[in-house]
Design brief:
The complex is a heterodimer of chains A (320) and B (325). Chain A is built from eleven helices and twelve strands. Chain A is an alpha/beta fold and 320 residues long. Chain A has two domains: 115 residues, Rossmann fold; 180 residues, NAD(P)-binding Rossmann-like Domain (Rossmann fold, 3-Layer(aba) Sandwich), CATH 3.40.50.720. Chain B has 325 residues and is α/β, with parallel strands linked by helices. In chain B, helix 4 packs across helix 6. Chain B is elongated and about 75 Å long. In chain B, the strands form two sheets. Chain B has a seven-stranded parallel beta sheet. Chain B has a five-stranded parallel beta sheet with strand order 2-1-3-4-5. Chain B folds into two domains: 111 residues, 3-Layer(aba) Sandwich (Rossmann fold); 185 residues, NAD(P)-binding Rossmann-like Domain (Rossmann fold). Classes of the chains: A alpha/beta (320), B alpha/beta (325).
Chain lengths: 320, 325
């Protein structure tokens, strides 16, 4: 079986040898190299480890792919032309690898907002040993948390918030109960659930059903002093409304790892928005995540080699 | 309940309703500042005292009728423990008072360090969108997941911290207490003479033991040299447990990956101390215990202890004066 790797993760020789041991004959390219730059038999490739944007950039160079293993989880950015070019190829996502790292980022940012870390970091920069403002420090203990999305990432968030004795409600398409949550609700419930929630954590894929879920009107239902954390995608939260609510103090603070426009333009007013923490869409990029990617590569390549169904098959029509 | 007792209340602001609630327990209340000499007529009558460091500016002998001292702190080394041990005055401590805020502080600051918050805050100030990358290993974020944690101390704050850390799926938690007795919540416990063995493979070591003559300077050159390369030291209970010069050398050599400290040996930390500007030093001004719940919990603690004392003649959370905690 001919395996093509567009190597985003600096795979080691040992890791590649493990793939070879499964019966794969491997061609490796750097992410900036076309398949045709690194081999002549690119048309014979059967399996590829690469992202959709790589396929789009080199459309048609590997016409006989039967399986593509990606690491992305959200399908919203996937160009339709890739699916149209590969109607019979099975695509697998990296869903299930992001829970730990994005949940740690989300709970960490929640704590930093509640505990006013930015204030005290400022004191340290100024060499000031003083308590001013300490009594406005909040606690996470016992708070009510709404997590938009009850997939792998949402559940990993819920488990960690539960360690702080929080009541955690999950929002999904039909309000079905999901393990690790105390309760569940749907988009239609937001107007009466939001006023009860101290923390809102956005961990939901962007689909036509979730787009602008927290629009200006819905956001105005949020509890006074609530904390907003977004770890999945932009264009779910209304960024202008969020800024107004941060200015007025309606929101205590917000942390965003994803934005309506990425990369965030240098002249965006968000950079200077008070009480907003900005991460450049890498809150989940940990060394642990790399290990989980490699584990997914290994297990799915093994399943494919054995003629079994790999995990994470993408259903394009569902949007995830 | 017997006759009304004279209560001297310091270090705890009370609302009129809270004062009434204490009076209803059978206390006749005087209120004074914690850190100033108490007027002689009040001192002469006081049978019960609620304070923090009142005995820094008052002698124990100024209070001839004193039967019970309730501290508002968890660590009670600011009280005249040796003198108290020679009397039959009972002493209560602030148990479970600060466990939640201090445990949350610890997880918050560890995640700030692991998620490189300082780095990304600086990028934000410069309007720079620069992702962590797989090629530049140093720019990647780290995880609490799978870390091994050592906590010196097995008291209420340490137990709350254990609970939070388990939620993040750390690989194991080991503890240290006075005799190495096993404590639920820990995978293993060590005695003080085994400290080097305990810390040697920990990614995170938390200093959370009470300050006693035995624990002072516990984190010295030798213990720090036993720690895992790149480990994080969290100094949370009392700064005097940690030898500052040894920690600085550990940070400079890379033996220590970071110092996360709410307490230092000499407080307040002087403005020219080099710790302020060190890249991997995260400082807060001994305020990890302060949140918007501070006085809510403090009143609840004092109320419950004074109620217990009124009903039983004993503090609910009593200090063992022979041990000092």
């Amino acid at each position: 079986m001919k395996l093509f790797v567009a190597d985003n993760y600096n795979l080691t020789q040992q890791e590649l040898d493990e793939f070879r041991a499964m019966g794969y004959e491997i061609t490796v390219a750097r992410p900036d190299q076309a398949p045709s730059e690194v081999c002549e038999n690119h048309e014979e490739m059967e399996v590829a480890l690469c992202e959709h944007f790589y396929l789009k950039a080199h459309l048609g160079e590997m016409p006989n792919l039967r399986m593509v293993q990606m690491t992305v989880a959200g399908l919203d950015l996937m160009p339709a032309v890739v699916f149209e070019t590969y109607p019979n190829t099975k695509f697998y996502s990296g869903s299930g690898t992001y829970g730990v790292s994005l949940a740690e980022w989300s709970v960490g940012e929640t704590l930093q907002i509640l505990r006013q870390s930015a204030l005290f970091e400022g004191y340290q920069r100024e060499h000031q040993w003083k308590w001013d403002g300490s009594e406005q420090t909040g606690e996470l203990w016992g708070k009510t948390v709404l997590v938009l999305g009850t997939g792998d990432i949402g559940r990993a968030c819920a488990r960690r918030y539960k360690a702080f004795d929080c009541t955690v409600i999950g929002l999904n398409t039909d309000g079905r109960p999901v393990q690790d949550f105390d309760g569940s609700c749907t988009r239609d419930d937001l107007p009466h659930v939001l006023p009860l929630c101290d923390v809102v954590c956005v961990a939901i894929p962007r689909t036509d059903k979730t787009l602008h879920m927290l629009d200006a009107g819905t956001m105005s239902c949020m509890k006074q002093g609530a904390v907003l954390v977004v770890n999945s995608r932009g264009r779910i939260v209304d960024e202008d409304k969020m800024c107004q609510m941060l200015d007025s103090g309606h929101l205590r603070g917000a942390a965003l790892d994803c934005f309506d426009t990425e990369p965030l333009p240098a002249d965006s007013p968000l950079w200077e928005q008070k009480n907003l923490i900005i991460y450049p869409h890498c809150g989940g990029v940990t060394m642990g995540l790399r290990e989980r990617y490699i584990e997914r590569y290994k297990s799915n390549l093994a399943l494919y080699a054995q003629g079994k169904q790999p995990v994470g098959l993408i259903h394009y029509e569902r949007g995830y | 309940m017997s006759e009304t007792k004279k209560l001297l209340l310091t270090a705890l602001p009370v609302t009129p309703e809270q004062k009434q609630a204490l009076e209803a327990l059978g206390y006749d209340i005087d209120i004074c500042p914690d850190n100033q000499p108490v007027p002689a007529d009040i001192a002469a009558q006081a049978q019960v005292i609620v304070c923090f460091r009142l005995f820094g500016s008052n002698a124990l002998s100024d209070f001839p009728k004193l039967r019970y001292v309730q501290s508002v702190a968890t660590g009670v080394e600011a009280l005249p423990l040796k003198e108290l041990a020679k009397t039959d005055i009972r002493v209560g401590k602030g148990k479970n008072l600060y466990s939640i805020p201090m445990a949350e502080w610890t997880v918050c600051r560890l995640l700030e360090y692991y998620k490189k918050s300082r780095h990304f805050a600086a990028l934000q100030r410069e309007h720079k969108w620069e992702k962590a990358s797989w090629v530049d290993y140093k720019s990647n974020l780290e995880e609490l997941f799978g870390k091994k944690v050592g906590i010196c101390g097995t008291g209420d704050i340490a137990l709350a911290l254990c609970r939070l850390l388990r939620g993040f799926e750390v690989s194991s938690i080991v503890g240290m207490n006075s005799d190495g007795r096993p404590v639920e919540g820990y995978d293993a416990c060590f005695a003080p003479h085994q400290l080097c063995d305990m810390v040697k493979d920990c990614d995170i070591v938390v200093s959370l033991a009470p300050l006693t003559p035995q624990s002072e300077g516990m984190f010295d050159e030798k213990v720090i040299s036993c720690m895992k390369q790149g480990a994080v030291l969290v100094s949370l209970s009392r700064g005097k447990l940690v030898n500052t010069a040894a920690v600085r050398r550990g940070l400079e050599s890379g033996r220590l990956g970071a110092l996360i400290a709410d307490v230092v040996a000499e407080e307040p930390l002087k403005p020219d101390n080099p710790l302020w500007d060190m890249e991997n030093v995260y400082l807060t001004p001994h305020n990890s215990f302060i949140t918007d719940q501070r006085y809510v919990r403090l009143f609840e603690l004092v109320y419950q202890n004074l109620k217990h004392y009124a009903l039983t003649g004993k503090p609910r959370d009593e200090v063992d004066l022979s041990k000092g905690y």
